Amino acid sequence: MLKKFNLFHSLLGIFFKNRPYDKRTVEISNESYSVRAIVLDDIKDLLSIEREVYAGELPWTKTAFLMELQAAEPHLYLLIQKDEKTIGFIGCRIFGKDAHITNVAVLTQNQGKGIGSFLIREVIQFARANNCETISLEVRISNKNAQRVYRQLGFASSTIKPAYYTENKEDALEMILHLKEV
Questions:
Q1: What residues have CB less than 8 Å from 173, skipping those under 6 apart?
Q2: In order of start, what are the domains of the chain with their CATH numbers?
Q3: How far apart are CA 162 and CA 177, in angstroms?
């Protein structure tokens, strides 16, 4: 039985290409950063980043992160660090042929340095490796800076989701990247 399970698990890994993401050092705008997969012990850092980026709000709770990190569906959750301090993260999960970016945040003092763009490009590679056709995300209507970054990476506006954000009932703009066009 164990042999059958191990075979099934390894085949599932090949089918979904949900391989471990090895820690590595990257250069972004002449600065060195380390990037790696998020583990459960990182959740406290993610919550701290959310508090800073979202003015004290926590769009995602510890439980939400736990559920995502332990989900059976193919997913990728990465964090990026400078001098061993977590400064940003991204998450995506695959639904059919779409890789949906569930969360992305970079500390305010590190925004505008290409870190968010780097993280999104990592998701693009992951989506391609999993034969996705699109990448989707929601962004606050008021977050023009993020929308600009997404457009620079090839995302296009799709639909408006009224009162999407529960804490203040702000609308969300859904944006989609068609991978065949990039």
A1: 138, 139, 140, 141, 147, 157, 158, 159, 160, 161
A2: 21-181 (3.40.630.30)
A3: 21
134, two tokens: 């699109």
| Active-site annotation, residues | 138, 150
Kindly tell me the sign of the dihedral angle through the C-alpha atoms of 130, 135, 140, 146: positive
In the block, residue with structure tokens 């391989």: 19
Calculate mean pLDDT across residues 133-143: 96
**Spatial separation of the C-alpha atoms in residues 141 and 153, rounded to whole Å:** 18
What is the predicted pLDDT for the residue at 18? 52
pLDDT bucket at 15, cuts 50 / 70 / 90 = very low
Count other Cβ atoms within 10 Å, centred on residue 60: 19
- C-alpha span between 179 and 154 (Å, rounded): 9
Q: What percent of the chain has pLDDT over 70?
A: 88
Residue 71: Cβ within 10 Å count: 11
Give the span between the Cα atoms of 169 and 43, in whole angstroms: 26
User: What length is written for the chain?
Assistant: 182
Residue with the larger pLDDT of the pair 86 and 5: 86
Phi/psi of residue 168, nearest 5 degrees: -135, 10
